[in-house]
Amino acid sequence: MTVQRGAASQEEPSPAAQAATVRGLQEQFPGVRVWYGRATGSWWAMVPLGGGSRLLEAAQPQALRDSIMQVRAAG
């Protein structure tokens, strides 16, 4: 799991921004579940892989996108 501390101190995105980000990432990565954790202040993704799923966490949507690409490339 990728963990970046200190994310909770950032300002929470608006519900519309959260929905747009989730929609964009899920369209880019079909089958990946994405959400914003209000309690953690982090972006999360559950990435299905051949041998199971991988839970990822990132402070910013771009970092989550990069992590999704990395774990998918690694298989």
Key structural traits:
75 residues, 3-stranded antiparallel sheet, disordered N terminus
Helix-strand blueprint:
Elements: H1 15-28, E1 33-37, E2 42-49, E3 52-58, H2 61-74
Antiparallel strand pairs: 1-2, 2-3
Ends apart, CA distance between termini: 15 Å
Percent helix among the residues? 25-40%
Specify the overall morphology. Answer: globular
Number of self-contained structural domains = 1
Q: Number of helical runs?
A: 2
Physical arrangement of strands within the biggest beta sheet: 1-2-3
Task: Give a short summary of the structure.
The protein has 75 residues and is an alpha+beta fold. The chain is built from two helices and three strands. The protein has one domain (19-74).
In words, what does this structure look like?
The chain has helices at residues 15-28, 61-74; strands at residues 33-37, 42-49, 52-58. It has 75 residues and is of the alpha+beta class. The chain has one domain. It has a three-stranded antiparallel beta sheet. The protein starts with 14 loop residues before the first helix and ends with a helix.
